[in-house]
Structures are given as structure tokens and as C-alpha cells.
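Spend some time on this chain, C-alpha cells included, and walk me through the fold:

. . .
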Amino acid sequence: MNIDITPYIKELLFENNNLVIPGFGALTLKYSPSTIDHVQGLLNPPTKSIQFDENLVVNDGKLIDIIQQKHQVTTEEANRQIAKFVSIMRDQLDRREMVNIAGVGRLYKDFENNVQFIPDSTNFNKEAFGLPTVNFYPILRDKVTADTIVPSGSAKSYQYTKKKSFLEWFKDYSEENSWFPIALVATGFIVLGGLLAPKLGLFNSAAVADKKVNESPAIPPTQETSLAVDELPDNIPAEEDAVDYAEDEALANADEEDIVDTESSTLSPNQRIAVVSVGIFGNKTNAQKRIEQVYDYGYDALPNKYMKNGKQLTQIGIQFAFETEEEYKATLKHIRERFKGAKMIRKE
């Protein structure tokens, strides 16, 4: 005799909150109250969902009793049919197959060899059985305001107002909130100022750079080295700077004895300092472009202005700190790769 046990599992779950399948596990019902999904506009009835616990295997007798009643068999035969049913399910699970209990759910084994349960959508709550999920939509009504109250003798009657236009709403809101027009005007000025500031030249990067040239520390030359004017990048227009650049080249062999160190760096006990010259310029535009190049390569530019033969010159240098000779050579190599003809003028 072969008895299909799965229909009795579903039947018993409508009558009981838990059911043990002897030697396999227990199915337990969990009550969930009705819920409202405001986003989807759904009203869900109260439900009882199923959970599976493979640790509860002690026979509660419910499944044996219903088999005996339905098929008029002995307790031993009922136990044998249940054991056969459990054996078939375990074989399927060991083969990584999914076991389906119609109307109840599906069982499978995960990667850690634990039995997992996926319940079906059946609602085992008898009180709510058959109740569908209901779509609902909020009812929109015009708002009754105080200005719609119209006195009529000793009684008062009410009527709905028409929807306000944007101008009417703005006027009413401004009267109730006196700060609102002021905040709106202030915001407009801020936005307008942000748009006009670049056109009016309120933020002049060149002016900031010139100020930095005037305030940065000077670079002292030594008697052992001579300063050379570096070649400028290709993006400097030749027709605009040819004359000034020629003048800069003429200064390459000039005597820099008038250049004086005005500031010294504060170093940690293990650090030493080196200064590299990357150009001398008589033209402000060329000097500024070299300063921008230095910053683009991640160094701090040290410009120094001084007078020579009645002409104002700008010496651009790079000062860096180092602790080891290897660190010094690596930094110097990096600078010379980016600035042709860079000259070491001080190493302490």
C-alpha cells in the first residue's frame, strides 16, 4: 500500500499551529496581522505563514492519527508509510533536488547541507481564508478654510473654495511668513553675484600669483654654480614672448651676487634641505607660467625678485627637504626630468 501523505499535511495545518513530520522536522505557523502598503495602494488580510524547523522531530501523533482515520490502517502501518515518505524526501534532498509539498511549500538543501523551506502563498488563517488583497485609493477633497465660512443669521453655512493659483498662494504665504520675501530676494542676489563675479574680474588668479611672488622666500646662489634661463613650454606663444625671452637668455651668465636669502626653512633634526633653480625671467608673464608649471608638478615655487642693471628679474626655484642621499637623488632626478637645465644652487 502506498499512501500520499502530502494532502494530509496541508489539511492538518489548517487545524493546528504546528505539525511534526516524525524523523524529519516540524512545520510551524506564524501569525501576521493585516498590513497596508501605502506605496502600492494594497490592503493585505491577516495571514498565517509557515516556518520549518528540522530540529523538532519528536512524533506528536497528529499525522499518524489522520492516516489511521482516512485509510483504516494500524498504527504500525501508518508509521511505516510516514517513514517511507520521509526516506523518499531525504533521498531527493541528498541528490540536490527540490521536494514539493503541494499547497504548503518547497524544501531544498543549501551549500552548508542545511534543509531550507520556501512557503507557498497559501493563507492558513481560517478566519481570513479566501480574503483577497484589496487595492485602495485615497479620496481627495478640497480643503475647507476659515474664509469660506459664510454666516447666515444665527447659523453658519460652509462651502468649498476653488483651488488657488500660484500667485494667490504666494501672496497668502508671504503674508503669513514675513521672512519669506526677504529670504527670496537675498537668494537672488547671491545667485546673481555668483554669475557676475567672474565677468567682473573679482577673482583674479594672476593677482593672487603676483602676491605670492612678492611674499615667498628668496633663493641664494652659491659661487660654485651659475643660473641658467630654462626653456619655456611649447604653449607659450612665440610671437608674444620672443623678445622678452631673448632678454631672459641674455641674463643666463649674469652675476647674481645681489640675490640675498631672506628666510630659512624650519626642519626636523633628521632633515636636510636643497634648492634647485628652474629659471630666471625678466618678463612677468614668463615667470608666472614657470610658477604654474612648478605647482602643476607638485612642488612649491620659491620666486624671488631683485634688480640687476636697472631691470627687475625673477628667479624661480624649488626647495625640498630630504633625509637620505637616495631620497635627494630621486627628487633631483624627478625635477630635472621636468625642467630642462635645472641647476642645484644649495644643499645643506
Observations:
- The two ends are 102 Å apart (CA to CA).
- The longest strand covers residues 311-322.
- Residues 166-200 form one domain.
